[in-house]
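Morning F.,

Quick status update on the modeling queue. The single chain you submitted on Monday has been processed. Sequence for confirmation:
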Amino acid sequence: MTYDVYGIGNALVDMEYEVHDEFLQDNDVPKGLMSLVDTDRIVEIVKRLDRPPSLRMSGGSAANTTVAVRGFGGRAFYSCRVADDPTGRFFLGELATLGIQTNKTGVIEDLPSGRCVSMVTDDAERSMYTCLGVSETLDPSDVVPSALAESRYLYVEGYLCSSPTGRLAAIRAREVAESEGVPVTLTLSDPSMIEFFRDELIAMLGNGVDHLFCNTDEALAWAKTDRLDIAANELRDIAPRLTITMGAEGALAIEGHAQSHAPGVETRAVDTTGAGDMFAGACLFALSQGATLLDASRFANFCAARTVSQFGARLATLDDYQGLRRAFRA
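Structure tokens below.
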């Protein structure tokens, strides 16, 4: 296979700021959630932050996951859409430097490239304002069937459900993968996606996927219950392979009727941004190397714990990912 993971999602340049709870309250920012906003609102909040971001990097959920796959030594392709503007050129340039192939160069559009402002409070909670910009116009033409056919896994970002054309792109990617025998993996992404775009997520899932990623809050929201065992049983109907992350408590690795628990890794959390993205990337990389789902989940827990112990959704360099891989083996 040419690629270990073919990712598809919203291309965003992440900008991270450390804030106090008062800033969120004063600016009506919902704490701990991802909120979709328009260009005017994201420009306004950046103006109120009134300083450069502490971190800036190419991101978006599926992009972070494909970077992790690449960082650990895998090969990755990423389908996205950015504008031919400074933000878009920064995004594509960084992915190219990392050795990740993409579907195209920046497009000429009236909309700007996507941005995400992540506001992190002292308790490590991240509250995000996301302006999808031109990434919201991602459509089926952005899927590259030849690259997808040469991939071990397709990874679909659940956030695509919020865009009509993005949803169609995700469905197109799933259909191509199914026709080529490529396992389809999908993440539910965020409880807000389930609350506001449930029918759209169902359309993206089709008759089910091979592997579903979610966290406890997303699982409970999907099943409309407060019991994780009930939620897990319902999600089994969607995917024969299921991973439910539980923060410091680790993760459930479920295959059919077999369920295992990968313990959490002790760490001091300062920023939970990107923990799920890292988990999925580490898990998919390990699976591509022949690991069992339980062992892949153990590795993923280890890597996610490292991510939340720092600011930012990604590690700084490819060498950092390799160092993390070596540390886990040691």
